[in-house]
Queue: 3 jobs
Job 1
Amino acid sequence: MDQSRPGHQALPLIIERPDLAHPFRRAFSIILTAGGWIVWLIMWIPFLGALARHFGYNVPLVSFPSQLSLHSFLLLAELIPIVVIAAMLAMALRFLWEKLRNHAGFPDRRWRPVGLERLAHHMALDPERLAGWQSAQILYVRHGDRGNVLDATTNQPKRPE
């Protein structure tokens, strides 16, 4: 069942066998990738130049609109330790809550078995009727216009004549 038909061999993916791609497509993808990397590196030049000037290195002034991006980056860099400490504290509190929740009197509702009474309550049925449905080997279901279940019974319904 999980094997393909005999004689039908699927082609390998292009990412696994790039030599199967057309030579023009391979050359174009290499040029496009290299161009993307070059543009990405060029975009870092103004920021790195401003950062070097901030730390006192005498580098030529690179044209960029303002020092606002550098100032924003430095403010974020000062906030990184606070964010890391807050995240570690949140993880520690969550870990402690998971360990101490049962001792505090809060039951673990995630792993509670459903049971017939709870299932019948959520389906707005009598538990005896639901137990009859579960014990039946064949259940006849009547659907509404939109496909929702209107009724279910273990007895075969009479067909209209």
Job 2
Amino acid sequence: MIYLIWSIINLAVLFFFFYLITGFIRKGKSFFNPQLKVVSILVMVVGIFQLLSATGLEENSNQIEITQDYDNNNPSKIEELVLEDHLTFDINLLVKYSIDQNDFIPTESNSFLTGFISGYEWEYTLIQTNSYTSNQKAEFEAKGILKWKLFGVNLYNETKTFSGTLN
């Protein structure tokens, strides 16, 4: 529930920013309410700064290469798992395996958020998993950082660690 409330707060700040911009364009500086003038100007300045700086941001691919020494001609298999399921969003994990006869060798992994993710950013940092044969299951441990953002500004980093088995 806290994730939903945080997303709604982010949307409210975004709508407040657009309200301030349109009001400022229509009426000028007389638009600002004297009681909320400092907060309104702060939201406008941060919003404009975020819009200008967003063009130069690099996107984190959240992809980790596990094994480099494998045959690219081997068939591959992708295992997908939901690491954390919330009301508004999920944290997902993909692990790609190269199939060498009866052995499944992990080659790369990817993790991402799906759903209503306003105010969050996921940084996938580590995975530890092992090779397995067709009659076994692979154990894994994955780590990442869930960044709580308000209007694009990072306010809190929540470290997450997941462990389990892949079929």
Job 3
Amino acid sequence: MVSVEKIDSTNYLVSLRPNSSLTGIYRVIFLGSIAFVCITIAIIFFIFGAYLILPFAGLELAVLFSAFYFSFKWSSKKEKIYISNEIVKIEKGTNKLEYQWEEFRTFTSFNIQKDKNKFMRLSFRSKGKDIYVGDFLNEEDKKILKECVSEIIHDLNIKKY
């Protein structure tokens, strides 16, 4: 998901997040309903004498919760791109800041590359170093990001002169 916010006439904020179908309380409801059904069936089998069903149901739920935990952790990634006349600043992280990069805009270029599988990779380049942004986005969102950043840079270049 790409969202652009115009802070003022020369400052822009581009926020990036992966698409996520389950958010907030709906995650708890979904996992709770699966756990309820699984445990209910396991208890019924336990009552009828199939004692090994209960530990394996618990193991199944542990694996399921682990898989969803890693999926939810991945979907909570965030990237913020601040673009102004003076600087370009990129912040990456989940719930806290894990990586930050800042450079003068005059020394920075916006690059669009295609990898060997024909997927688009977007980056800001300065001093021979590429800072890739939006790697978790799908191709449609990457096109939106490319257009938004290009428009912001064009807008800032016009206002600069």
